[in-house]
Write a structure and sequence with these properties.
Length: 492
């Protein structure tokens, strides 16, 4: 078998309303995702969206420096090919770099996702794209294209496979295939090669437990780490001639998901329009299922001081109702606790912030309120997800008065988007976490403004401790979103 390289082509057929055999759907899904990513990047608005996703995930990973669980921050050196954003220096092992970056993003938990896919395509795609692009000494344009293709393929797999089985966490499942697609683009695979890599990745995808995540067990970080590393590895294997395997999506569907794809799911997965513009961005670092409860609590805080809170009851859909721990014992457990998110919303605190001396008193106050929060499953709200994340927060104050707030979307949802400045402000706040190097700010600026032809390793040099990037000065000013349909090769 010869190596698979070249430019992806157009899909032969999309949009069928009937369920096709797995081996027939997957190549179409991959090809459609590639074309959708290229169509997105052919516009200035699409390039800006891809850059925003890259910037957000970069900020997440860098903000985890000094906060990764023991053993996940390997020693690096400045001259390694692949940057360790969440550790010091770099490594010549792209799979290790990808694993550390993916784990780091789940440490800060302030990433992106696609609600209908029930997962985070960018988490895996970005970590693999970054490592594989640097390993190939590629440029920023390659990173953005690899991220966009991996995101589109991963999102479509999430739509195709549908809801997870009870107790299964999404990280490391179909996200492994998103990583394979992203790494495959950076490695030069053509459409057929990408389909083989995605299929191979699905044969080794994980189906990790959700309960350990809610308990705050650090093993949670290994799901995206191992899944992303495996996706990158199989992309390299296909590039080097590893034989293709039989269809695997149906196996993952049986083991990790609730059943075979429906005709509606197949059509959604084969939609020709780009899905990346539908991404949500988290405004704070908690599980997305907690964000609407936090949003509703913030609105109640305008009328009820934290000291006046007597009891709180949160009514929400089944998936969110699992996040009911009132006494979370670690940062990760807090990030998966609706009581904690509600308490922080009522007090005006960031629920995802790391522990520290300055947070001790505020965390103690939040813990007292979280202990008074009860989360209840309301079956009447189940149909509201994934079209939204409905939550009703009922607060009783010390005077016996009842206050109620509802939220279906959170700031950063596509229905309630944050402005470019607001998104950048969240990224900047992530970098104020103790630990990130001063060069991280320069890297974010370069990701937003640098020409696509600039070497990615030049852009990441400051976070490795090398000399400042030669493109640290502001790049060309982008045109207004939507003003051009042509590919702006000068800027992206």
């Amino acid at each position: 078998m010869s190596p698979r390289t070249g430019r992806p082509g157009d899909p032969a057929h999309v949009g069928r309303a009937a369920v096709a055999p797995d081996g027939e759907v997957l190549p179409e899904l991959v090809a459609t995702g590639v074309v959708a990513a290229d169509a997105l990047l052919a516009t200035v608005a699409g390039q800006e969206q891809a850059r925003r996703v890259a910037a957000r995930l970069t900020a997440n990973a860098v903000a985890a420096r000094g906060h990764l669980p023991a053993g996940l921050a390997p020693p690096g050196r400045r001259d390694g090919r692949c940057t360790l954003l969440a550790a010091h220096g770099a490594t010549d092992s792209p799979d290790r770099a990808a694993a550390v970056t993916a784990a780091a993003i789940t440490t800060t938990q302030c990433d992106e996702g696609l609600r209908e896919a029930r997962g985070h395509p960018g988490l895996h795609a970005y970590a693999a794209a970054l490592a594989a692009t640097e390993d190939a000494d590629g440029d920023l344009r390659t990173l953005l294209r690899a991220l966009a293709v991996g995101w589109e393929v991963g999102a479509r797999l999430g739509l195709l496979l549908g809801p997870l089985r009870d107790g299964v966490h999404p990280h490391g499942g179909w996200g492994t295939a998103a990583a394979a697609a992203a790494a495959g683009v950076a490695a030069g695979l053509d459409t057929a090669g990408l389909a083989d890599a995605v299929n191979l990745a699905l044969t080794v995808a994980l189906a990790g437990p959700d309960e350990s995540t809610r308990r705050g067990a650090p093993a949670h970080h290994l799901l995206p780490a191992f899944g992303t590393a495996a996706g990158l590895t199989v992309a390299y294997l296909v590039r080097d001639g590893f034989p293709a395997t039989g269809p695997a999506a149906a196996h993952l569907g049986r083991t990790a998901h609730q059943g075979p794809p429906t005709p509606v799911a197949v059509d959604a997965a084969l939609a020709t329009r780009p899905l990346l513009p539908d991404a949500y961005f988290k405004p704070v670092g908690v599980c997305a299922h907690a964000l609407t409860s936090w949003t509703a609590a913030r609105s109640l805080a305008r009328d009820v001081p934290g000291a006046d809170v007597a009891t709180v009851t949160v009514h929400t859909y089944a998936g969110a109702a699992l996040l009911a721990e009132r006494f979370p014992a670690s940062r990760l457990a807090r990030q998966f606790s609706i009581p904690w998110a509600v308490a922080c919303g009522l007090l005006g605190l960031d629920p995802g912030v790391a522990d520290g001396r300055t947070e001790a008193a505020r965390h103690a106050e939040a813990a007292r309120i979280a202990a008074r929060v009860t989360v209840r499953h309301d079956p009447g709200l189940d149909d509201g997800y994934p079209y939204g994340r409905p939550a009703v927060v009922e607060l009783r104050d010390r005077a016996g008065r009842c206050h109620t707030a509802r939220a279906r979307f959170h700031p950063g949802d596509r229905e309630a988007p944050l402005s470019a400045d607001e998104l950048a402000a969240v990224d900047a706040a992530l970098l104020r976490t103790a630990g990130p190097p001063t060069g991280a700010t320069e890297l974010l600026r370069a990701l937003a403004q640098a020409p696509g032809s600039v070497s990615l390793r030049h852009l990441t040099a400051p976070v490795r401790g090398e000399a400042p990037s030669p493109t640290g000065d502001p790049g060309p000013t982008p045109a207004a979103p939507g003003t051009s349909r042509r590919k702006d090769t000068a800027s992206w």
